[in-house]
Design a protein that fits this description.
Blueprint: H1 6-21, E1 24-29, E2 33-40, H2 42-49, H3 56-74, E3 81-89, E4 98-114, E5 117-122
Antiparallel strand pairs: 1-2, 2-4, 3-4, 4-5
Amino acid sequence: MNLPSGLAGLEQALSARLALEGFDFDITRQDEAVEVAVRSCPWHQIMIKSGRGALSERVSEVICRVENSFWSLEFLKGDGREIAFERVRRLCRGDGFGRCSMGKRRLLKRKSFRRGRWIYQRFNN
C-alpha cells in the first residue's frame, strides 16, 4: 500500500484491514491519536455463533491485544516515537461496543522480545 509512517499510515492501514475483515467501525483522528470505535466484530460473532461466547474475552485478551499492538509498532515514526495501543472498551466483555486508542507514547531506545512480551527502554536524557 506504500503508506506513510506514523499515525497517518496507521489510520489508513487500520481502515483497510477492519473493512476487509468485516468490522462495523468508525475511525477518528485526534491530535496525537487514532480512535477506533467498533460496533460489531466478526470474530466475536463467530465465537457467539459457535457457542463459545463465554471464551471471547479470553481470546480477545491474547489475539486482539497482541495483533493491534504489533500493528501500532509497524508504524513507528522514524524519530523513534512509539505508537501505543490501549483498549478502553470491549464488545467481548459486554461493554456494548469496542473502543481503542492508538497514539504516541514515548521515545524508545531499544526493544527486545522477552518471555512473550516486547520490552521497551526509554532514552536516558
